[in-house]
Amino acid sequence: MFTLKRTLLAVGCALAFSAPAFASHCPADAKAIDGAMSKVQLSDEQRSAIQALRDEGMKLHAAGDHRGAESMLAKAMRMLLDDMAMQ
Ligand SMILES: [Cu+2]
Description:
With 87 residues, this protein is mainly α. It contains 4 helices and no strands. The chain starts with a helix and ends with a helix. Copper (II) ion (CU) binds next to helix 4.
């Protein structure tokens, strides 16, 4: 019984701490995108499409919608990876 309670407590703490960790994840992702974009050769179209997703993601992040921000940033990253794969 004691072990179960401790396990639940540990899960509760993990959930409580995951929110701020998640929030700081967006700028880290945006930074990763910026870094990758500066190294990879992209057409203007590709660059502006990725940049738009990245900016939209950071806008959502600033508005407190980290889930939405992450999905935008993930989309930008996937697009970046696809473009890199084609080179
Ligand atoms: Cu965020």
